[in-house]
Amino acid sequence: MRFYEIKKGNHYASMSIFEKICGIGWKIKTMSLRFVFRNECWWSPARNQEDLDQNKLAGIGFGTNHHNNSVRLTWVPDFETPGMIKVSGYTYDEKKEGQKFTIAFIKSVHVGDTITGKIESRDGAYFLTVNDVTIRMDNNKTDPNLCFRLFPYFGGNNTAPHDMIVELEMA
């Protein structure tokens, strides 16, 4: 697995332009994942309400802009339970009326555990799996053939409160 580090005060994980370019694909409909949230990913208490914003783990962007059409696995610390991370599904659809994104909780996981995940776009829906739990989220769009991988990102509006490390493998 590759280590993705998001430095204190930043949103984006450190990575090369080569890695981003290699993330571009054609007709990507399934992404398999293995990941580990390191201890740094859990903290308490929340600094403010925006610490409840979804941090992005990985996903698929469809077309040329992930704010038009994308699906991801996201995470936020469970501020009530030490060492636990809440993992959710997240979709973004620019053409949707009102709130542009949808969030659906999948399950909580322990920091330090190796987790398997999967993101699929099929049958007019997204199916997101974390270990043994799969949820379905609506996809009201036709996914274009041009796709790209979405990499770890901290926030919402807040930046990382300290250095964050996520181990991640995408296939």
Your description of this structure?
The chain has one domain: Sandwich (Jelly Rolls). The longest helix has 6 residues. The radius of gyration is 15 Å and the shape is globular. With 171 residues, it is mostly beta strands. Strands 1-12-3-8-9-10 form a six-stranded antiparallel sheet, with no helix packed on it. A six-stranded antiparallel sheet has the order 2-11-4-5-6-7.
Strand content: over 45%
- CATH architecture grouping: Sandwich
- Total domains: 1
- What does the main sheet amount to? 6 strands, antiparallel
Instruction: Please estimate the helix content.
Output: under 10%
Which CATH class is shown? Mainly Beta
Core attributes:
171 residues; mainly beta; Jelly Rolls; six-stranded antiparallel beta sheet; 1 helix; 4% helix; 50% strand; globular
List the helices and strands and how they pair.
Blueprint: E1 2-6, H1 17-22, E2 24-26, E3 30-37, E4 55-62, E5 69-77, E6 84-93, E7 101-110, E8 115-122, E9 125-130, E10 133-138, E11 146-150, E12 164-170
Antiparallel strand pairs: 1-12, 2-11, 3-8, 3-12, 4-5, 4-11, 5-6, 6-7, 8-9, 9-10
